[in-house]
User: Fold Fe2OG dioxygenase domain-containing protein from Phycicoccus elongatus Lp2.
Amino acid sequence: MSTSLDSLPIIDLSLLAGDGADVAAFDQALLRATHEVGFFYLVGHGIPEDVVEHLFAEAERFFALPEADKLDVEMTRSPHFRGYTRTGGELTEGRVDWREQIDVGAERDLVTGGAAYNRLEGPNLWPDALPSLRPTLTDWSQRCSIIGMTLLRAWARALGAAEDRFDDAFDRPSTLIKLVRYPGRDGDKRQGVGAHKDPGVLTLLMIEPEKAGLQVEHGTDWIDAPPVPGAFVVNIGELMEFVTDGYLRATRHRVLSPPAGASRLSIPFFFNPSVDRAMPHIDLPAELAAQAPGVSQDPDNVISGTFGDNLLKARLRAHPDVAAIHHPDLVG
Ligand SMILES: O=C(O)CCC(=O)C(=O)O
Ligand SMILES: [Fe+2]
Assistant:
């Protein structure tokens, strides 16, 4: 499992349009990559190049807006953790991340009362100065959701479950897109984003062409994961590890800041269940169960099955300013 590896595996989604043998080959490659590494490149996903180019152009336009326009949609105005975070405004492992970003989640009505995680539901903050952002990100979210569901069905098959095993949990998915910009490093500070596991189920990441910086933990090494043209970098989060007793791995990753004066854009899409749902547990076939280490619970980062609980924990920790303004009762 911890044999050395120079780069992430590459998996071709278009195999799923082939015959039974192609589908089986895809499912096995997916299972192996996420058991051994937790990360892979996904090619053959069918999203046209010009759609991706348009998305990055939109991200560039957003970050180039006057600061006042970005601060109009600052996350501190949103109890639902939506909107803009300025560089240095976010923490990972208690240390400052050197990146600016806007978070856009599933557009929902407010829910008053009930479980604390209901506070994650609500409207996004859309910048008046860039009206094209909303249709662009809505389209991207729909495209990524289709790929996400396709991958979840393949995991279910490969893990020996019915292929619709995860469908119900995703009837009202919690999607989240981040547009992220990493400025060049400031002195000897290099934490673009600190080492972390994603708190949810599945992440589909697009990286600006030719921009290195992402690193993925493997055994005692950090593997560089530069962008492969047109490919997503895909990884699973803590909840997928949780429901497979650790057979599938949520892997720590980090981003090193680009050189001084340079910058790097990235666009992660997080695909997760409804806030009130848990991912169903998978009863692994015996030969897979024998290789499942169980879930190691970190006392500083306890994994709970219900998605909203897991996400709220991560959000309160990453955005202490939003927590202090809108959720003082939750952070004491
Ligand atoms: O920017 C990247 O390449 C990765 C970002 C990431 O890991 C995250 O936002 O969870
Ligand atoms: Fe991440």
Observations:
- The pocket of 2-oxoglutaric acid (ligand 1) is lined by residues 178, 180, 193, 198, 205, 207, 214, 253, 255, 266, 268 (CB under 6 Å).
